[in-house]
Structure to design on (558 residues):
């Protein structure tokens, strides 16, 4: 059932108060970690969406605990949670974590393990739910405290609750730390129940009244002493197929994705690659100096930083990016483009805090504003959108790129989301659900926040895109369309944006038969302007979908 806005606001306030007590709680916990003489005191680092060593709050806290004599050893852990590999709640036959993101995640975990080994530590990798696996790591004659980064959306926070309860049963405990945003939650210049519901007021407030904190130092060799009694520390999945051991029976199995030579994104996962990419985009290529002018591109690897997947998995810190840009502006040049990358990071913060303030409302059919609209469910129409068969080349090219690579440009995401929600009038959660499975850079707050905004359910401006105009503006020569819709390869730029309008003679000349080689366009609509229409029943109702996990995007993209 829906939670009222008052309840959500009260919950957000309680979370904020809890977070602001974090420092005092850590002092108290440090005292508690001091066990009796001869008692082994262990800190477990539960890596989640923070797969890096630089500017990592839980790593820093562990180093501090060891340095103060409050911990004897530190055990880094990552759990591949079977719940990530259930089918999505909207039952379109795909896993919540599809093959592209599974591959990126596996690479990121491998890289953390390698980097920990370089400083005399290591990473324990477990295949199972964290509330089952983490309690097993408690020393037989000692105490254990689990450090983890605090998350904001319901599935992640439910995992935190489950782990906390499981640890309590075995005499251990967990401490959560804030570390995923550019601006720290304690530094927000407003209470969460007064969180702006549109971006610009949020940006103005944080830019004018808050500072970005300095990065935590990376750990040095010997600062994370690894316990000697850990078994199977060398065990780690070697391929995407190895993850099938935790895919539930009857669910689709994972296969290592095949690389598509047309892909705009071809980077591996991991901290090392992410840091190298930032180095390239700033200091080596100077591409950041023209980012604002090229950010709406769709072909090639350099029109954007391509750091969104690394940020989503925590392979790179938003604060590290920020301070590198500050240094670049000081040493090289400061212009609108250098600022605009920071601007995008603030967008990311906005959706994180918006999700924290609104709670599960961002996953509900009627959104945070509770507006009833005549969303419909038409499986055949959804599949045409999903598979890039709508007859609208810009939409089709983008959807095919997503399906073949796990990536889509920011411009593409805005257009395909607008088309699904405001032209087709389909239940917007179908799109969010598909993006959850496919996107390399899936992040629940950004993805679902963007989708619910695209559906016009946040109270902000509704952006209904004219697909033909967008196609002509951002792919004027049809280069991107021809790349992903090769059946239109002979169609000239004057006709490629609306091939369904070609005459039979033109179709013969350009060797493409509309309705056979390329689909006839789905008729456009004015769904976004409709009022008082007969409401189509949604088989998903206005409640969260049934299943082991919430429905999980037209998100920002760097």
């Amino acid at each position: 059932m829906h939670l009222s806005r008052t309840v959500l606001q009260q919950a957000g306030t309680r979370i904020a108060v809890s977070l602001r007590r974090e420092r005092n709680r850590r002092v108290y916990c440090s005292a508690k970690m001091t066990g009796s003489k001869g008692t082994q005191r262990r800190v477990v680092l539960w890596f989640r969406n923070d797969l890096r060593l630089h500017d990592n709050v839980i790593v820093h806290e562990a180093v501090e605990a060891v340095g103060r004599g409050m911990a004897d050893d530190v055990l880094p852990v990552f759990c591949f949670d079977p719940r990530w590999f259930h089918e999505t709640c909207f039952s379109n036959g795909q896993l919540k974590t599809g093959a592209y993101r599974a591959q990126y995640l596996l690479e990121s975990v491998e890289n953390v393990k390698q980097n920990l080994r370089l400083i005399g530590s290591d990473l324990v990798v477990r295949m199972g739910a964290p509330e089952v696996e983490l309690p097993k790591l408690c020393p037989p004659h000692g105490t254990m405290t689990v450090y983890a980064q605090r998350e904001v959306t319901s599935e992640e926070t439910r995992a935190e609750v489950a782990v906390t309860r499981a640890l309590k049963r075995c005499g251990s405990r967990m401490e959560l730390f804030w570390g995923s945003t550019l601006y720290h939650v304690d530094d927000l210049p407003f209470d969460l129940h007064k969180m702006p519901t549109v971006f610009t007021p949020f940006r103005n407030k944080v830019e004018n009244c808050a500072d970005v904190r300095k990065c935590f130092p990376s750990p040095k060799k010997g600062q994370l002493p690894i316990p000697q009694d850990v078994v199977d520390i060398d065990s780690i999945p070697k391929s995407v197929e190895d993850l099938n051991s935790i895919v539930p029976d009857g669910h689709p199995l994972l296969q290592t994705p095949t690389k598509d030579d047309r892909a705009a994104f071809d980077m591996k996962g991991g901290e090392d690659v992410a840091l190298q990419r930032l180095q390239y985009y700033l200091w080596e290529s100077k591409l950041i100096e023209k980012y604002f002018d090229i950010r709406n591109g769709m072909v090639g690897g350099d029109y954007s930083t391509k750091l969104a997947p690394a940020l989503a998995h925590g392979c790179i810190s938003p604060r590290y990016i920020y301070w590198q840009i500050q240094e670049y502006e000081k040493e090289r040049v400061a212009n609108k483009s250098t600022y605009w990358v920071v601007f995008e990071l603030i967008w990311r913060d906005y959706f994180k805090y918006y999700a924290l303030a609104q709670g599960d409302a961002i996953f509900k059919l009627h959104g945070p504003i509770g507006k009833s609209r005549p969303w419909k469910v038409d499986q055949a129409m959804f599949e045409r959108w999903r598979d890039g068969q709508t007859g609208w080349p810009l939409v089709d090219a983008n959807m095919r790129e997503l399906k073949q690579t796990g990536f889509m440009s920011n411009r593409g995401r805005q257009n395909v989301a607008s088309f699904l929600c405001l032209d087709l009038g389909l239940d917007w959660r179908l799109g969010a659900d598909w993006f959850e499975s496919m996107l390399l850079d899936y992040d629940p707050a950004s993805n679902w926040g963007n989708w619910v905004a695209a559906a016009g359910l946040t109270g902000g401006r509704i952006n209904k895109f004219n697909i033909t105009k967008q196609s002509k503006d951002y792919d004027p020569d049809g280069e991107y369309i021809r790349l992903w819709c090769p059946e239109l390869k002979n169609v000239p730029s004057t006709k490629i944006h609306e091939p369904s309008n070609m005459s039979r003679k033109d179709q013969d000349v350009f060797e493409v038969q509309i309705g056979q080689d390329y689909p006839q366009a789905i008729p456009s609509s004015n769904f976004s302007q409709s009022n008082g229409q007969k409401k189509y029943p949604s088989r998903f109702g206005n409640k969260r979908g049934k299943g082991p996990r919430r429905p999980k995007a037209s998100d920002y993209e760097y």
Summary: The first strand starts at residue 40 and ends at 47.
